[in-house]
Amino acid sequence: MKNPALFCLPLLGALAVQAQDYSPYAGEDFPMNLYWGDTHLHSSFSLDANTMGNTGLNPATAYRFARGEQVVATNGMPVRLEAPLDFLVVSDHAEHLGIMPKLRSGDPDLLEDPDGRRLYDLLNSEQGMQAIMQELLQSTSTNTPMIDNKQVERSVWQETIQLADQYNAPGNFTALIGYEWSSMPGGDNLHRVVVLADGADRAGAILPFSSFNSEEPEQLWQFLSDYETDTGGRALVIPHNSNISNGRMFALADSRGNRFSKQYAEARIRWEPLMEVTQIKGDSETHPYLSPTDPYADFETWDFGNFNSWDGDNKKPEMLEFEYARSTLKNGLAEQQRLGSNPFKFGMIGSTDAHTGLATAQENNFWGKASMVEPGSDRTLAVDPMVDEEQNNAMITPWEYSASGYAGVWARSNTREEIFDAMRRKEVYATTGPRIAVRFFGGWNFQEEDIFDPDSVRIGYRRGVPMGGDLPAPSSRAPGFLLMALKDPQGANLERVQIVKGWLDGQGNLHEKVYDAAIADAKPEPRDTTLNTDTATYLNRVGAAQLSAWWRDPDFDPDEHAFYYARVLEIHTPRWTAYDHARLGVPVAAEAPLTVQDRAYTSPIWYSPDANND
Description:
- The chain has 16 helices and 23 strands.
- It is α+β, with helices and mostly antiparallel strands.
- Strands 1, 4, 5, 6, 7, 11, 12, 16, 17, 19, 22 and 23 form a 12-stranded mixed beta sheet that branches. Strands 14-13-15-18 form a 4-stranded antiparallel beta sheet, with helices on one face.
- Strand 2 and strand 3 form a beta hairpin.
- The mean pLDDT is about 90.
C-alpha cells in the first residue's frame, strides 16, 4: 500500500502556492482606527484662564481628565467625561506662559526679577486681580510683555513639555506638545495653535515663539522651519476661531498687504494644513450671508467684531468671506488657478478652546469657556461676567458659547507619530461635540454596490482617495464618492448626510452647492416629537443609527477646479442651555436657544483639471 503522506505531498505543495494569495488584506496598511481628541485646551498655565478663575487645573489635571479620570472642577463639582479622549494638546498661550501660578506661589526666581516683584506686589495689593487684568490689557494692546525673563520662561516650558512626556502613553493616550501663538493686531484674532510631533528632548531646544516675538504668522512659520532644521523635529500650525478676525484670518494678502505669490501659497499650506472650523466661540463652516440657499448655514453663528470690541456693528458683511471655511476653500480654488498652488487647501477639525482645563464638548456635560461660567453660574442669563459692557461695547452673553468641538483622526495607532501624520495628510474631520464616525472617499471607479460591500472602507482606499486627498488624473466620467456615517454610540441618531461642493467655472466665478446624499427614512410620528426642552430629554425614535451613500456629481465639468466635503447632521437634541435649566433650575434668557442640531464636517477632497495636483 502506498504511503498516504507521500500521496498528499503534491496536493499540499499546490495548496501552499495558492495560499500565498489567499488573504485579501495581506500587504495592506490602511489607517483603520478612529481616535478622538482636542487640539486646543487651556490650563491654569494660561494667563487669561488663570485670571478668569482657573487657578488649580494645570496641564497634569487636563491630561488626567482627558484620559477618563474624574477630577474636581474649579466650582467644586466632580466632573468626568462619558468616554475618554485618545489624544490631547494642552495649548496654553505662549504669551506670559505659566506666570500666574508662579506669581501666586511667590516663586523665588520670579521675585528676583524687578518686574516679577512688582507684579507679585500688585497681585497682593488691594486692587489685586483687577490690577493684573489692567496690566494684561495694556500688555496685549502694546504687544509688550509684562515680564521678560528667559530663565522663568525656560522653567515653565520645561515643566510643560515634561508633563506631556509623562502623560504620553503610546498605544493608549497621546499627549502632543503644543502651545498657542496669540497674535491679535488691532484686536483681530489671528491665533494659531502650534503642534509638535516630538518629545521633550527636541521641544526643549526652543522657547515658544509668541506674538511678542512677532505678530506675523510668516515669522512663526520661519521659526518652526528653523526648529525642524536644527532639531530634526516636525511641526504644524492650526488657525482657529476665524469668525472674530474681522476678515483677516483668510484674507487674500499676506501680513504686509502683499498679494499672494506662489512661494507664499506653498509656505502657507505647508505650515497650516488644517483649520479649526468649530469651537466654543461659535462655528466657522459658513454663514447665512455667504450661503443664503443653505438652510443649515446658520449654526451657532457669531456675528461679533473682534477682541477689542464685541459690538456687532464692528462686523461688516464684506469681512465674512475671509472668515469662514467654505468661502475660503472656494477662494483657494481661484488662487490655485492663478498661482498653480492653493494656499487654503486645508483639512478641518474641531476643538474646544476651553480655558477650564476640561475638554468637554457634550451638550449634557459642558463646563463652559472659562471657570467663571461653569455650571451653577448665571451663564444662561443675558449677563456676561467676562466682559465689561461699558468699557468694551459688550454684546456677547455666556449662553452664546457653543458646546464644541472635537477632532476625529483616522490613524494606524494611537501614537504621536501616527496622530501627527494623519493631521499632516488631512485624514481628519471636525464634529461639534458628538463622536460621529465618518468615512469619505472619492474616486473615478466607484459603483453604487460598493457602498453595500462589507469591505467598503477598503474599497475606498484601494480605488480612491480618503478625505484630505486629491482625485488623481482627470477621467472622462464624473467622480463618485463613498460616504459612511455612524451615530455617536451614546448620542443622537443621524438625520442626513450631505456633500458640499465648491467650484470655479470657466469665467472665473466661484460657486457652491449642497447635495443631500442620504436622508433617514421618515417615521410614523412627526420629527422631534420626543424632544422636551423642559426636561432636557429626547428619544432616538426618528433618524437613523447609520447612513451611507454612493454619490456621483451630477454637475461635474472636467475643466473646473472643485472640492467636495461631507456634512453629517444629527436630529435635533437639547442644547446645553436646556440641560442647565433642567438640572439646576436656573432661568434661561428668552433669546437663548434650547435645541441644537450637532454635526460633523470632513476634510475636503479636491479635483484639479491638471494631472499634477499639489
